[in-house]
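2024-03-11 09:14:02 DEBUG pipeline.ingest accepted 1 chain
2024-03-11 09:14:02 DEBUG pipeline.ingest length=332
2024-03-11 09:14:03 DEBUG pipeline.predict start
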Amino acid sequence: MTTTRPNVLLFGVGSIGSVYAAILILSKRCSVHVVARSNYDALQKQGLTLRSSKFGDHEGLRFDGVYRTCEEAANSGTRFDYVVCSNKALLDAKPSLSDILQPVVTDGTAIVLLQNGVGVEEPLHEAFPNNTVLSACVWTGAKVLGPGEAEQFNREGLTIGVDHAEALSAEQEQKQLDVFVEMSRAGGSDVTVCDDIQSERWVKVIWNACWNAVTTATQLRTNRFLEASPQAMMLSRAIMGEVVDVARAKGLTVPDGSVDKLIEQCTSVKDGLPSSMLDDYVAGRPTEVEVILGTPLREGLRLGVPVPSLIAMYSIIKALDWKNAHPEEAKI
């Protein structure tokens, strides 16, 4: 770690990445750089615009560096203390996230994951065994309004903790966590530090595995799906219950009543909910099926936990991904 202001590189400046890039700029505690692909021109020329019910409206927020690739960021000569990943979590993507990050992860770099799902940390530990990995559950409403412009709505918050690496001292990991939390809070983020971040991630994936899957498979918002048949609620509870069983078989903590709580949170929304997975499918983008359904499914099979509903939903979403990737072959 440097003794000057930390250098932070954000990889992925979509909706969530834009919000947390703005938070870090507003903190004035670090130098903020970004790797921007589709919105490079806008961020380079006019900076970032954030519309927010919590943080207010900000136009022309400027970065200390805007790059097209991680190679370009590395060639700038800047050593990055933190690399924040707010891109889609695609475990089966080629090249992998670890491959992409290789040029910008050096001795002392902490990797921060602002991504959905479970199982995202393991490939990074394998590729970077001597680097701290900070993992977060993101509880933030956000959407892209246009190139270089995003909106934050509803709540904003992070639950974050260390995903411990065997080769590192807990003291080093904690210090890097503390600095990142302080920067984020200085920018106005509502940050909760958690000693058991994997349990938190798995509790969140109970929600995602169900509602992302059923909305994408049916092309319906949650309320319409649940209205369609009495069996829809049975399926929803089965999906959630299987994720709970797998998490507990792994030795993770899932509070009693979690499924009931998550069902109530969804059904209390009068107009129902769409999902990020549904948005990705409709837009023709690969879905985060592996980290939302694939990891719970594979862990269930490994541990001998029955997961028939996860098998069904995973198979359907994988088929829909294949359909998007092979439109000609998919024609009926």
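2024-03-11 09:14:41 DEBUG pipeline.report The radius of gyration is 20 Å.
2024-03-11 09:14:41 DEBUG pipeline.predict end
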